[in-house]
Design goal:
about 30% strand; about 120 residues; 2 helices; 5-stranded antiparallel sheet; globular; mainly beta; about 10% helix; two-stranded antiparallel sheet
């Protein structure tokens, strides 16, 4: 499986993450969602634990939503998951819980939202 993921990662093209209007996502844009709500690190800071069960903190981020009907990269979030912004990666090479055609590892998700298992998100 790991070899397949490596092959897929090496063959995929690098695409820039953009907002709905086509502008590239910047650190400032990552702070404001399309609904206009300002998230602050103090109120939404979280740690992402390795979803495979090691208990290791793999990234720091900000909680965005737990609504199972919200979208993460055009897919419904679903139950028992959270949408989180990835701000700081602590462990390189950790595979995403739900990879996309643009991202396979946590470091590729910096500055964007990802789906992560709810039981692997620790609010700070």
């Amino acid at each position: 499986m790991k070899e397949m993921c490596e092959l897929w990662r090496s063959s995929k093209s690098r695409l820039t993450h953009t907002k709905k209007n086509g502008e590239p996502v910047t650190a400032k844009a990552a702070e404001v969602l399309s609904v206009g709500i300002q998230f602050t690190p103090q109120s939404n800071a979280c740690n992402l634990l390795d979803w495979t069960g090691s208990g290791e903190i793999v990234a720091e981020g900000r909680w965005s939503s737990s609504d199972p009907d919200c979208l993460v990269h055009h897919l419904r979030l679903g139950p028992h998951a959270m949408r989180v912004w990835v701000d700081v990666v602590k462990e390189l090479g950790v595979y995403l819980w739900r990879p996309t055609s643009d991202m396979a590892t946590i470091e590729e998700a910096i500055g964007t939202t990802i789906a992560w298992p709810a039981d692997k998100v620790l609010m700070r």
